[in-house]
Amino acid sequence: MMIVRCYLAPSSIEGLGVFCHDDIKKGQNVWISDPILDHRIPVSKLAEVPPHVAEFLDRYSYPDWGNPGYLVLESDEGRFMNHADEPNLDFSDGVQGLAVVDIPAGTELTCHYATFTEGAIVMQPPRHRVSAVAL
Hints:
Layout: E1 6-10, E2 16-20, E3 29-32, E4 38-42, H1 51-60, E5 61-63, E6 70-74, E7 82-83, E8 89-90, E9 96-99, E10 108-111
Parallel strand pairs: 7-10
Antiparallel strand pairs: 1-2, 2-10, 3-9, 4-6, 5-6, 8-9
C-alpha cells in the first residue's frame, strides 16, 4: 500500500507509472505491506480463472515471500510501478519500500523487479494505451 500521495501518469519507461505528489526524503518509507489494499491470492486458484484474468495476475502480482503458495496483488497505484536497474526505492525487505535518494515531487517512483520475482526479469509488452495530454 502506497503511504505517500502519488498519481498515475504516462511514463517514459513504459505505459503508466507511479509519480510522487510531494517531495520524498532519502530513507522515507513510501510503501508498506497492508492486507487492506494488498490482496493475497492462492497460486492454486490460477488454474480456475479465465485467461484474461490470468494475464492480469501475471502482470500485476508477485510471489508473497512471507506466504509461499500465494501471490500479492496490490489494488492501489503501487501495481503500476515500473522497473529501473537503479531504482529510487528499495523493497528488499518485503515489508516496506524506502527511498534510496531524495525524490522531488513529480518524479516517477521505480523499483527493481528482482525484489519481487523469481528467475529472470521478463518485460511484458505495454498493456495500456496511454498518451500525454496537456491539461
